[in-house]
Amino acid sequence: MKHLKMLLTLALAICSITTLTAQIKTSPKKQTEKGTVYSCPMKCEGSKTYNRPGKCPKCKMKLQAKNVSPSVAIYQCPMKCEGDKSYAKASKCPVCNMNLKTVNKEAVAANYQCPMKCEGDKMYAKAGKCPKCNMNLKAITATTTDEHKGHNHN
């Protein structure tokens, strides 16, 4: 009987030690590529994205990877005083004088601006012509804004 108690105590000790080490041991975190986000293919959470692969918390489907390109910051008035008018630089709204806020790139489908900058940093959502100089509006990309960094046209 003494040997049986000793054997059971030893078995219990081994089981508890293995359970503790299993709880302490952390699984290696998967490193995601820079510029990759994951989203649900069913869009059950709208345009919500995740930084790691996994499953959607709502529908349990596997999240799909999407590459994200560097985006251009777009600024709009939080009070929408000027409708959907956008600006390339952070400044103040000319109507209500509030600070302009950054807008999600997906919220603004496309950004077009006059190449002559006759309206300053004013942007338009659709391609067309500048109301002042009648030139075709130019699409704004990350490289377009980066080529003018470091100097001022004023």
What brief labels describe this structure?
154 residues; alpha+beta; two-stranded antiparallel ribbon
Give an account of the 3D structure.
By secondary structure, the protein is an alpha+beta fold. The chain has a domain of 37 residues. Helices cover 18% and strands 14% of the residues. The strands form four sheets. A two-stranded antiparallel ribbon has the order 1-2. It has a two-stranded antiparallel ribbon with strand order 3-5. The protein is rod-shaped, with a radius of gyration of 28 Å. The chain starts with a helix and ends in an 8-residue tail after the last helix. 11% of the residues are buried. About 9% of the residues have low confidence.
Short description:
The chain is 18% helix and 14% strand.
State the helix count: 2
Name the average pLDDT. Answer: 75
Instruction: Determine the N-to-C terminus distance.
Output: 96 Å
Describe the global form. rod-shaped
Regions with little confidence, pLDDT below 50 for 5+ residues: 26-33, 142-147
| Structural class by sheet pairing and helices | alpha+beta
Q: What is the rounded Rg?
A: 28 Å
Residue share in helices?
10-25%
Q: How much of the residues is beta strand, in percent?
A: 5-15%
Biggest sheet strand order reads 1-2
Please trace the helix and strand order, writing H or E for each element: HEEEEEEEEH
Major beta sheet summary: 2 strands, antiparallel
What's the count of strands?
8
What's the helix and strand layout?
Elements: H1 2-24, E1 36-39, E2 64-67, E3 74-76, E4 86-87, E5 101-103, E6 112-113, E7 122-123, E8 138-139, H2 142-146
Antiparallel strand pairs: 1-2, 3-5, 4-7, 6-8
